[in-house]
Design brief:
2 domains; seven-stranded parallel sheet; alpha/beta; Ribosomal Protein L25, Chain P; 25% strand; six-stranded mixed sheet; Alpha/beta knot
Amino acid sequence: MRYFYIDPSRISASQAVLEGAEASHLKNVLRLTPGEKVCLVDGCGVEYPALIDRLLPGRVELSVTGRTPSPGVAPIRIHAAQGYLKEKKMDRVVRQLSELGVARFLPFVSERTVVRPASGRATYRRERWRRICIESLKQCRRGDLMGIEDFTEFGHLIEGGHGYDLRIMFWEGALQGLTPQRVAQAALDVRSVLVVLGPEGGFSEQEAAAAEAAGFWLARLGPRILRAETAAVAACAVVQYLFGDLGKGVKKS
């Protein structure tokens, strides 16, 4: 069955309307026809099986036949803060973190940021990343759309990092990794995690010290130095494995 993202405001208990790129994809690329079954995903954790009713210019009308919680929503809320990378690298990170079930993406600039976001392009970048998240949501069958935050500075990020059960900065200079033993010793009930990852140049010792003083755990990703975009995926995969649903079997009814 084909999956389509629909804005929650465009769906009711019995009817739904697809517009824009999603309607065009359904009609012109997939060439679906009235009577065919599809699944609509609202990005808020709910899926709607539906039947195509009418194909109209710029829109598709559908009949909603059900409503179910999406199995693709992660049980833990991971907010991933990524030091700004060159544009194509950021695009890849956004797509892959969305696939891993990360709840929100927070881009920031820090001391060793190599390329800073161009003035006036912040809105364009956010919209582009949102489109990537929609594509990823459909491709990997996740039920909630990864949120994209505004750009911020490293100092603001760690100062405003309260409200999470666990805050982690991944830094190659850390003395230990994020191991099950370390987690068990802390005896934390973790439902939300802020994961902070550096730009191409990594973090300075001063930044690491500031984060630790603010209550962040410092952790490393093994003995090898990873590329920034690789580190982002590895770190969030580790967190999803330890606290979320990565690697867990499918629950049978």
